[in-house]
Amino acid sequence: MTALPAPALQKERRHLRVHQAEIGDRIYEIVTTACALVIPALVIAIALAVFAAAWPAFAKLGLSIVTSSEWDVAKGKFGAAPAIYGTVVSSAVALIIATPLAIGVAIFLSEFSPAWLRQPIGFLVDLLAAVPSVVYGLWGIFVLVPLLRVQVMPFLRDTLHLGSTPLFSGPAYGPSMLAAGVVLAIMALPYISAVSREVLLAVPRSQREAALALGATRWEMIRDAVVPYAKSGIIGGIMLGLGRALGETMAVTMVIGNRAEISASLFAPGYTMAALIANQFSEATNDLHLSALMAVGAILFILTLIVNAVARWLVWQVSRGRAS
Amino acid sequence: MKTLRNRHWISGAMIGLTYIAAVLATLPLLLILWHLVKKGASSVSVAFFTNMPHPVGEAGGGMANAIVGTLILVGIACAIGLPIGIGAGIYLAEKRTTPIAQTVRFLSDVLNGLPSIVMGIFAWELLVRPAGHFSALAGGAALGAMMIPLVTRTSEEMLRVVPVSLREAALALGYPRWRTSISIVLRTALAGIATGALVAIARIAGETAPLLFTAFGNQFWSTSLRQPIAALPLQIFAYAISAYDEWHAQAWAGALVLITMVLVISIAARFVTRSKFGAAVD
Predict the structure, then answer these.
(1) Same-domain pairing of A79 and A156
(2) In this structure, are A104 and A217 located in the same domain?
């Protein structure tokens, strides 16, 4: 064996020592990287699994899944239009109710709340997001639906004379699009208000002081200097709430009435995509039925993916603006 | 031109409206809690935790199997979700702005917003369909997959709060990077990471939709991971949509137990961070 010259030997030894320390680092890096890569792998796997299972239905039924309103398992007809309509309408009702409330709370908490109230109210609103959806559903069936049927619906229709408009006409069943919208509003509210509060707090103090210095009242300051600055973040929060509402399953299934019909009236029962899957999945009788349900799942997946991606992008833009 | 007095009047009215919004927004939670206690408390007893469900027409009975089932499902979910989530959180906190980290961060947010029923379909396709039967394992896996993005994001946030000087001090003393990460950075952020874990557990413990076609539910006592298993949310759902008053009462009692679990965990999570991490976070 030939002896190495001294400098080379030294280099070799140092290399060995560094190498030993680096082995730990390498393993650590590989493990954490693998954990991180689980997330993209999961997204891809979910997309593949759902679309692979939905493919037979898309191939056989084509666009009629989206356009047809006839859902008849016995005849092999699977048109999910009423469910898609119900998903969109119930979420829209939810946002119409939740958005002003959520932004109101966010403004209250970021601008006007006495210091001692800020924590408790913020916490109570945040806790709404922790309530399990099946509990909302239970409360919806036994408290909200009877309340809507006996009090709210007759009030809207007869006392306010809104019965002549198609939205509030027809008999008051109870389980209805309106009930689903109200429950979804309560469920989406904490998401919208949490994001809105955060972006409102990120608005620089100078923005507020400048408005007040120019003689704005406190409300004009909010309207003209604070909200426009936080606008895209607030819209992001609304989109986030929309994402929740679109995909919510249990609470909606329990109060919407589960009838696959498109009706203009909010008093009429309806259906949503998530509810359709939840109700029929475990009793799907044949492969096409199962695949059609998967196809509905795939449409829901795409819809929420787009809504969430846009939401995150909007919120991210505001927080990036704060950092720079 | 509006007069000054008018403008002040409008300002006061709008500020008043935000106060009303605050009251209206806190009202649903208080109402729900009030109704849960009013309708559920009378059915909650020791027997509720130790007895099996009674058949229709027989009052009383408990949800022992569903409570144990939920604990098993949450246990499986934690075994999957916590290590992967914390590992991914470490990766994101250390790499911060690399393109891969940005992508992973974005995708974990997207995954967070995925409807839970889609996660159920995924677990069914992956674990139930090939096996040919529903199982506790599939249910736990679906919940675990939901936990990963939640834990990842909170862990990352908590790890980022750890001062860089701590890390630098350890490296200067000759610690290798991996030991610095584990025994200095991770340990400092432990309380925060525990909070994130608790919040994630509170979130998934009440999930129903992903269990509908994975864990499926079970009227009998079962702790086998390969068999369908009962879960508190599934049982509440089944009882709530049934036509029997006895079962409705049981559903309210189950919901009261479930929400107590969830709220205790959520409140505990808040206090863990406040006591040990409050100064750093604020």
Answers:
(1) yes
(2) yes
Q: A304 and A226: one domain?
A: yes
Same domain, A69 and A6: no
Tokens of B94: 């250390």
Give, as one character, the DSSP assignment of residue B174. T
Nearest to B188 by CA among B166, B165, B156, B157: B166
Helix (DSSP H) and strand (DSSP E) numbers for chain A: 14, 2
Residue with tokens 């949509």: B241
> How close does chain B come to A86, measured CA to CA in Å?
16
Q: How far is CA A163 from CA A99, A147, A149, B116, in A?
A: 25, 18, 14, 37
- CA-CA distance, B207 to B213, in Å (whole number)? 13
Token reading at A49: 């699994």
- What is the rounded CA–CA span in Å between residue A302 and residue A87? 13
**A281–B26 CB contact, under 8 Å:** no
The shortest C-alpha distance from B50 to chain A (Å) reads 22
Same domain for A185 and A81: yes
Q: Does B45 touch chain A (CB under 8 A)?
A: no
CATH of residue A122's domain is 1.10.3720.10
Residues A110, A46 within the same domain: no
**Is the pLDDT at B281 greater than 60, yes or no?**
no
Same domain, yes or no: A73 and A175: yes
Give pLDDT tens digits for A221-278.
999 999 998 998 899 999 999 999 999 999 999 999 999 989 999 999 999 999 999 9
* Confidence check: pLDDT of B251 > 90: yes
Give every residue of chain A whose pLDDT is below 50, as ranges. Answer: 1, 323-324
Residue A286: how many other CB atoms lie within 10 Å: 10
Q: Which of A94, A119, A223, A209 is nearest to B13 (CA)?
A: A223
User: Could A294 and B121 be called an inter-chain contact, meaning their C-beta atoms sit closer than 8 Å?
Assistant: yes
Of A31, A274, A312, which has the smallest distance from its Cβ to B110's Cβ? A312
**Burial group, residue A248, by CB count within 10 angstroms (0-12, 13-18, 19+):** buried
Structural domain span for residue A98: 65-323
CA distance A147 to A153: 9
pTM recorded for the entire structure: 0.91
User: Where does residue A291 rank: exposed (0-12), middle (13-18), buried (19+ CB within 10 A)?
Assistant: buried
Q: Which uninterrupted H or E stretch holds A87?
A: helix A81-107
Q: Kind and range of the H or E element at A78?
A: strand A77-78
Which residues in A121-153 are b (16+ Cβ under 10 Å) and which e?
bbebbbbbbbbbbbbbbbbbbbbbbeebbeeeb
The 3-state DSSP class for residue A77 equals: strand
* Structural domains for chain B: 60-281 (1.10.3720.10)
> What's the domain count of chain A?
2
The CA distance from A164 to the nearest CA of chain B, in Å, is 29
ipTM: 0.92
CA dist B237 → B39, B232, B248 (Å) = 16, 9, 10
